[in-house]
Amino acid sequence: MRAVVYHGQEDFRVDQVEDPSILEPTDAIVRTTRTAICGSDLHLWHAPSMEWQGFTLGHEVLGVVEDVGAEVRHMKKGDRVLVSCTTGCGTCQMCQHDAWGACEKTTANGMWTNIFGNPTLPGGQAEGLRVPFADTNLYRVPDSVEDERALFLSDILPTGFMGADLADIQVGDVVVIFGSGPVGVFAQRSAALFGPAAIVAVDLDDERLAKAAARGCVTVNPKKQDLKEVVANLTNGRGADCAIEAVGSAPLLKDCIDVVRAGGRVSVIGVISQDPVEIPLLNGIMGKNLTFRAGMVEPQKYIPRLLPMIEQGRLDPSEIITHRMPLDRAVDGYRIFANHEEDVLKVVLEP
After folding, report:
1. Model confidence over 78-93: pLDDT tens digits?
2. How many CB atoms lie within 10 A of CB 97?
């Protein structure tokens, strides 16, 4: 089958690879009908080449079940399904405590290895993929929901919602969201569901900010405006109630801490590859009595809450799609996305 394969820094190719097969009785094989390029995929695009090469990329996937293992109970051939980007076994202590991202079985080979698109778990930017623990990691899509409205439940819509959830947004709050990319958009949409008084969208891209303004956000380009002054005017000088980092930028962590009031909350959902990261503790988090929360998305927790909102028309995740391409043009999609060309926001691939 065809797949987008990692060969090094800015060297992704559409290659012929081996078809996926059932390896465990809890597996399913999914034929991909829609997949997408995620902002976190760009970390691999930009990063120095790794020693591991030849693995299939991608973790945002929707498709049709082609085969199931003998122990799969809730999925069958022909089901149209959403694939969770993070895999859990569903039975270990971590999964039982809604911490699928730390599943004791699927992370046995190390942190992050339970997310599709790495050397140990081939991804879904391909004509098909193997899904372990299918009953836990696949979700049947209702007939009333089109592919493109469901696709982003695999990762970035739950990520954006998790940002709002971790920020513990209350009715009447002022919320600052750093980033108006795909995750930032969904953080904005999700924050609005909690009833804040104002959502402040912060970005350096004026075209993205214009779209955020159309969604009802107060917008700030830090190169042109003073963010703290804007927030002070909205809060009588108090500071924001909470801030969400949805970019993946270590310096923005300090900006989040600076812009919130004493007793406020900071939520981090952007993937920050720099590690370790310096943040002000005594004169920041502790000194201001802040709540600081971060984590990798676990769609299994949020899909059951978000899918009904899509069915009811309260959310339309397809709004972020700017480019649709066949799988064979995936590398063009990566270049456009990586270089912020053509007013790109989200690239969807069709095998």
Report:
1. 999 999 999 999 999 9
2. 9
Where residue 216 falls among pLDDT bands split at 50, 70, 90? very high
Backbone angles phi, psi at 119, to 5 degrees: -60, -25
Structural domain total, the chain? 2
**Pair (128, 176) in one structural domain:** no
Predicted local confidence at residue 274, as pLDDT: 84
Which stretches of 269-320 are assigned E, i.e. beta strand?
291-294
Domain boundary among 263, 294, 325: 294
Q: CATH code at 87?
A: 3.90.180.10
Do 5 and 12 contact (CB within 8 A), yes or no? Answer: yes
Question: What is the domain range of residue 220?
Answer: 160-294
Q: Give the containing element (helix H, strand E) for 335.
A: helix 330-338
Given a contact cutoff of 8 angstroms between Cβ atoms, the answer to whether 181 and 160 are in contact is no
pLDDT tens per residue across span 250-271: 999 999 999 999 999 999 999 9
In the 8-state DSSP scheme, what is residue 48? P
Any alpha helices (H) in 124-282, and if so which ranges? 134-137, 147-150, 156-166, 182-192, 206-214, 227-235, 250-259
Paired residues of 81 in beta bridges: 63, 140
Q: Which of 16-30, 38-52, 123-137, 166-180 has the lowest mean pLDDT?
A: 38-52
Q: Tally the residues of the chain.
A: 351
Report the SS3 class of residue 183. Answer: helix
Q: Which residue's structure tokens are 């599943």?
A: 103
Same domain (yes/no): 185, 77: no
Identify the CA nearest to 68 among candidates 58, 78, 56: 78
CA proximity to 152, closest of 290, 295, 348: 348
193: nearest Cα among 45, 70, 302, 53: 302
Model pLDDT, residue 112: 85
Judgement on whether residues 165 and 130 belong to the same structural domain of the protein: no
Last residue of a domain, one of 275, 294, 313: 294
Q: What is the pLDDT of residues 116-140, one digit of tens each?
A: 999 999 999 999 999 999 999 999 9
pLDDT score, position 158: 97
Provide the residue type at 119 as one letter.
Answer: P
State pLDDT tens for residues 299-339: 999 999 999 999 999 999 999 999 999 999 999 999 999 99
